[in-house]
Amino acid sequence: MSVQTFNTSHPDMIYLDYQATTPCDPRVVEKMLPYFTEYFGNPHSRNHQFGWDAEAAVEIARHQVAEILGANPKEIIFTSGATESNNLALKGVAYFNQAEKNHIITTVTEHKCVLDTCRHLEQQGFDVTYLPVKENGLLDLKKLEEAITEKTALVSIMAVNNEIGVIQPLQEIGAICRKKNVYFHTDAAQAVGKIPLNVKEMNIDLLSLSSHKLYGPKGVGVLYVGRKPRVRLTSQMNGGGQERGMRSGTLSPALCVGLGEACRIAQEEMGTENTHLTQLNRYFLEKIEHSLDQVYLNGDRLQRIPGNLNLSFAHVEGEGLMMAIKNLAVSSGSACTSESLEPSYVLRALGVDEGLAHTSLRIGFGRFTTLQEVDKASEIIISAVRKLREMSPLWEMAQRGIDLKTINWAAH
Amino acid sequence: MAYSNKIIDHFENPRNVGSFEGSDLEVGTGLVGAPACGDVMKLQIKVKDGIIEDARFKTFGCGSAIASSSLVTEWVKGKTLEDALDIKNTTIAQHLALPPVKIHCSMLAEDAIKAAVKDYQDKQERSKDGDV
User: Fold this and answer.
1) Stretch 81-100 of chain B: residues touching chain A, C-beta under 8 Å
2) CATH topology (fold) of A14-20+270-403
3) Signal sequence span per UniProt (chain B) (predicted)?
4) Residue A393: closest C-alpha in chain B
């Protein structure tokens, strides 16, 4: 049976939103299919061949996931995705250790599911420190070191930021946490398969990953829970005691197999894929910067994954820009669609000017992006930005040398 | 978000984009909104014998903001200042079928008309006083 290749639903569109989700690799889908019909058994059925077949498949997948993390398969807990993994890591460690420790450290640029979980824990009486980041989006290690107290149970810092693609210094953070004897959790949803990871070398105690960010199916993820040193946590789901009692519920062998295969492919092809993505990234950025003035790259220029570009196009509002490039599937840094009118909290945390934060696009390249697509996308963006700047009163004022900061704007 | 055909039409074929010379006595300029809020509208009217004979706009904002300002440049033309001031945000929102989260765009467009008319009237006052 052959599986349809990617993007046949909207052939006129170019998908550049790989941080939101990735399509399943057809090779992944091929591996999954038999587990819906032929090998449909419950992997937790210990009494017959159907269960054993399903269990064997799940265990192969567990090995494949462990492999890409440099972990032991016993340390891999399957979940429904990174949101659940992050919840389990934070709440699980917090609750288990609450008798002695009640402090958690994270950063202001984490994904909402980490921040929201931290807010919840604050309501439950835990103390949370939200560390700022530097202008380039990276953590100041000194600030981390200073924030750790004897009450700190857990440090949770994402590996790669979902909006701006910067890579946090995991090795250094891990070393600090080990030295201070606190657990280190990292949300690696955007990192697995994109950058080399090794939980042992990096002293990572807990790691969350999501299958659909690395060309696997949606609805499955993993929490790596280290055994040396042993991390103990309070489960958030009660039931049959699956996954070493940390996450009850029947596993989906098809989803686990898909994630496992996705990890296998990612590990095998990470090198060539990153070369491809770096080429696309450079081509795109050079073309944009050559054709347009006042385009700013958000986040560190070097410490970043090549599959992400977060750009501010001064004096052009992001949502309007997205409408003008409607055949490109990208994401806007301005959250104007939400009623808050607030621009991205990640860009604000970087100290990006509020006006500029409204002008941002997140452009994501991936495994199936071609140079032709990137070329076409850059053309479309360049002409849209030019057109919208011609319509922008801010651009006009800037061209006339008026400093926009001197204007007494009436905020609405 | 699904936009109405009218929004898309005004966004893709905006009417009356551009600028008049702001210092002209017969021109009134309204600049409303703020970059930090993600919306800035500049609406200019050219007035002759109490009638708005022409209008121009430039807008920094989302599709709904651009469509709202494009629409009001069409609507104010040929109107007296008083009639222009009668254009209500609800009418703009209704005409464009703005989604609820975009109602503020129509309010901004109404504000822009008011600001442009006021600027024109202030200028006229000053010129009578011999200040201009």
Assistant:
1) none
2) Aspartate Aminotransferase, domain 1 (3.90.1150)
3) none
4) B58
